[in-house]
Amino acid sequence: MENTQNQQETPRKTGWHKIWGVTSKIIDYLLPVAISVALIVWLFNKVNFHEMIDVVRRECNFWWVVVMMAITTLSHITRGVRWGIQLRAAGVPRMSVTKESVSIFGAYALNLIFPRLGEAWRCLFISRSENVSLSTVIGTDIGDRGSDAVVVICLTVVAFIVAHPALVDFMNHYSVGRDIESIISNWILWVAILGFITIFWLVCHYMRRYQWVSKIDNSLDMMWTGFKVLFTMKGRVAYIFLTLGIWSCYFLETYVMFQAFPFTRALVSEPGLAFGLIPGLVVFIFGSYSMAIPSNGGLGPWNLAVMFALSLYGISNTNGAAFAMVMWSFQAAWLVVLGLFSAGYVALNRKSSPEYIYKHSHIESAGKESNVSNTANTASEKSE
Length: 384
What we know:
Distance between the termini: 63 Å
Oligomer: single chain
Number of helices: 16
Radius of gyration: 27 Å
Structural class: mainly alpha
Shape: globular
Number of domains: 1
Largest sheet: none
Helix content: over 70%
Strand content: under 5%
Number of strands: 0
C-alpha cells in the first residue's frame, strides 16, 4: 500500500514542479519585456514623440555617434582581454584576443534579447570550446562583474563629491529625491539590512544539510573563488589597468555623445562644470545603476535614468529623451552587428575544433568500415 501511495504522489509533485518551472521561465522572460514596454510607454506619455524625432533630425551630429560606437567596440575588446587574464589564472588555456573579444560581443548582443542571457552564453562558450569546468568559468564571470561593482561604487562616491550641488538640488526639489534621502537616513532600514545579513549567514552556516541551503552556500563559495583570484593571480597590474580602460571607454561614450547635440554640447563650455566632465559623470552613474533593473539591454530604465540626470542640468525631457534614444538605439544596432560577427566566428571555428574533427573523422571511418564490410559481404554472396 505504501509503495502504491508513493507512486501516486510522485507524479503529482513532478507535475507541480513542471508547472512551476514553466511558469518561472515565462515570468523570467516576460518580466523584463513588460518593464521595458511599461517604461517606454510612460516615457512617451511624458515626451512628445514627434518633437523628439524632430530634435534628432535637426540637431544630431551623427559623426559623433560613429565615434561613440567605435569606443563601444574598444571597450568590449578591452573587457575580453581583461577576462582572459582572469580565466588563465583559473586554469583556462590562453586564448586569442579575437576569441576573447567574441565572447563579449556575443554576450552583449544576447543581453538585448534577455537579461543575463549573454553571461550564461559566454560561460558555456568558453567552457565547451576550451574543455574546462563550467563552474570555474562562472566563478571568473562573477568575479569579473564583482570588480565592476567596486568601480561603480567608487565612481558614485566621486560623483557625490564633484557633483554635490546638482545632487543636493535633486534631493531638495524632486519628490523622488526626498524619498531617497528619507530612506537613506532611516536607521531602521540599516538595522533591518544588518539583521537580514546576520540571519542569512546563520542559515548558510548551520543549515547546510538542507539541499536548497547547500546550493546557495556552494554558489557563494563559487562566487568568492572567482573573485579572490583577482588578488592572487599573475597580471594584477594589467587587470587594474584594463579595468580603468574599460570604464574610461564607458564614460567617454557618454562624454563623446555630449558633442552630438547642441544642448549637451553647451554643458561642456558652461562655467563650473569642468568642461562637461561633471554632468557627464552624473549621467553615466545614473545610467549604470539603471542597468540593475531587469530589461532588454537597458531599454526603458536606462533611457529614463539618462533623461532624468540631464534634467538636473536644465535639459528638457524632450531633448533628454532624444539624446538617450539616439545613444541607446545606435549602440544596440552596433551590438547586433558585433553579435552577428560572433555567430559567424563560432560557426566557422566549430568545424576546426578538435572535438568536431574527431567526431566527424570517427563517423567517416565508421562509414568506410561499413562500406568495406558491405563490399566483402556482397563478394562473398556472389562467390557462393
